[in-house]
Amino acid sequence: MRRMRGVLPEELKEARTGSDYYSESVAQDSAPSVPIPTRRLSWATAFVTNQWKRLAKLAVPGIIALALYQYVSAPDSVNVAVVKTVTTAETIGATGKIRGSRVADLGLDSSGVIKSIYVKEGDSVTAGQPLLALAQPELRSSAEAARAALESANAELARASRGPLPSEIREARAQLAQAQSVGQARINQAEAKLRTVKRGSRPQEVAEAQSELQRRQDILAKAELDYGRLQKLYKQGAISESQLDDAKVAVVTSRSSADAQKSRLSLIKEGASSDEIAEANAGLAEARASRETNVASARERLNTILAQPRYEDVSAARAKVDQARAEYRRSLDMTSKSELTAPFTGIVADVPVEQGQSISPGQKLVVLHEMTKPLVEVETDEENLSALTIGQQAVITADAFPGRELHAVVTDLGSKVNSERGTVQVLLSLTQSAAWLRPDLTVDVNIVTKRSARRIILPADTVTRYGGGSAVFVLRGGKALPVPVTPGAVGRDGIVVSGDLKDGERVIRDATNVTANSDVKALGR
Questions:
Q1: pLDDT category of residue 330 using cuts at 50, 70 and 90
Q2: pTM of this prediction?
Q3: Which of 469, 486, 480, 464 lies closest to 521, judged by CA?
Q4: Which residue in 77, 187, 290, 430 has a CA-CA distance of 20 to 30 Å to 62?
């Protein structure tokens, strides 16, 4: 223990400047300053306090450094999963795509500009349904004309192939009867004329001709009298020249008519000549020939109708139909080069063109999938070929439709391996259909290669990348030790792994940020 002593002047100065607890009292009537025990105690306290402050300033950085070291060097707390071998089905997992049982990249054999697009991606179409068309109106007009010609030829064939209608038979018989009656009437008329010509003139005919001649002569006399009177008036200027000309024309016309009647009277008195008799005979022969021709034609038409259908008519009509059909097919073929139709019922997967776009022959215009029996297309590592066989079952799921599950069967193992990627293509047929399936939908595929196998299944977040491969971090002796593993199928319960793992070992979860050989401790322990 330190013995008490007086305070030196320099200590007093230091205490005054360095201590907050220093105080000094001055005696009012004291002589030279003498240390007083009470004052010495205050100075001692200030001195000790000052020394402690010095020690504190030196100790704080050390304490902070020690705490930081302890914090940094403390092991990380991690979540763990316990390794446990279970009996489960052995599967091969892969990612696949939904595709139709038939996939067609559709195009046209001609070039042009797209006029109309009738479908869009995702549409369901039926076989023969138009998908798009080019702007070529002249081809469509030609096809319509050919179609109309074919319909007309078919109608003609139908008429030629059926029997006669009762109305057609009645009409043909009526035409035959009319030809007979009309022809006979003309014959009777020609015979009467011939008899008249041969018999010669009769007194009554002569009297009638003379009476007609007298009437015409009277008309001529009146016309001449009027003309003479008008001449005088014309000379006097009472009428125009055109009126005089009209009177003169009337005289000439009346004279010609009277002269003609006079010649006819002379012929009647003389009787018929040989030429007139020959003409009458010729008229009778013509009437008889005409009757025979018309009656024969009408009878032939009736017989033709009664004989229907005739082989010759049917054959000719059928030939016209064949010709019209060939022309129609040719026009349709030309039109088909400007219109794209669906070759089968399916779903439109892609339409990589736009209206108004120019296209070239063979260009892909529409992608069509037949989805009545959809397939799953998978690429898997070639090393899996030894474990795959036709007929193996598989489970299909899709992230886009969580909670939905389908089953499929392996139907085809690729005939060749992709040398660049080291993969082989596998096809699976779905054993059930679903409305939510779409062409090119990404799905997860787990092919069951063994129904019962002992496997380690861990949470998917335990597997990470380390050393260029897959690994898990095992908690051993407080350290995170990396253990290489081979991941397998991914399912609802986790991921199948194989590696140097033992039941009961603890594997670190969320291992992405874990460092190899780092100090760790399991949460809750």
A1: confident
A2: 0.41
A3: 480
A4: 77
